[in-house]
């Protein structure tokens, strides 16, 4: 009751927005629009539910889905010997986000699907979004605010060219018309998306609206994937499916400035290139897969060592934004997931990048290892519920550490010094409780050690959260 009173007093406009979107959801549900789950970061479509040699051959001409998600988090205070201009505050804080997304899809010709996703978001981060690389809420945006902002999150064309093999039926869902494909096919996507719509679509850790919340859990931490401040970008990708193998390649726009809101449309000069190879397998009758991702970004970015050299003898801390030039960043990620039984699955990720250049579009993680377990509630007679627990350990490369030690400021970090480096470790657990069809309530708990990689400000930081998610 005390928490509810505090929420209502501190940000009643947020509650009004959430209640309004819930009301819209209830009205739409009453109109018999089909329920569907959303399974990917920032409301992207779920991994297709494929049925080979399926008897169901229904193909939709159009569909409509929607979701709204509200996340409230409270951070306990913690002790630290000093605090810099971009440190995580040592005082207790609250944070919240609220999003509403509509998913509109239509088929205009054979194999051609067009999707448009209008979205509204509001939010308030911890400490003005400073002090953490493993940021606590995947729904928070870099340019968010406490007033509702509407925009077109996605608009894209998906064209499928069937090449034979087994017949595959893909079920209806957000950004997915019920369709019939071949197990051997080539798929082209052109338009505005977020890259986690296509690449590294992990079954157990990909969607902050229904799964883990922390940024280090929803994709490869070191993957500085091309995106604007809202996590969306424009470009094209091709996916080649051949039975149990998939090869994905794509080129997308970088922002004009690091973490900026405007994309650089000179895609042949500045871009993010991605290549992913996936292999699906079974152990017995239990599915699993392995993905290997390689990326190369070319952007107008600063070099940490150049910034340190430019600041020598000036008495000022280094500034990576003052030494920007055409720069490249290369990295990779390896992902493994496996179902251990009908109701238990595990995942493991590892990623690294040559972050001599500044973090540009995601977060300040140069290398990362994460993994976890997801348990379906069948064993306790709650088959629609999910319990998850995961860990992440993130680190910085030598050049990045030197820059922060000299007092440099990054996109998210800057304690004024970094005399005792430590890896930023995160433990997160959640329980997704299905109250009713399409309505989910999820308590979430996170423990973070060495926020901002600073062992002098070790913490631990305790974060308690509650998430409400509605979908149709």
From TrEMBL:
PANTHER family in UniProt: PORIN B
Name of the protein in its database record: Porin
Keyword Chloroplast: no
Domain of life according to the entry: Bacteria
Pfam families tied to this protein: OprB
Keyword annotations from UniProtKB, A to Z: Signal
Leader sequence residues: 1-30
InterPro entries linked: Carb-sel_porin_OprB, OprB_Porin, OprB_sf
Annotated stretches, region: Disordered: 37-58
Family: Belongs to the OprB family.
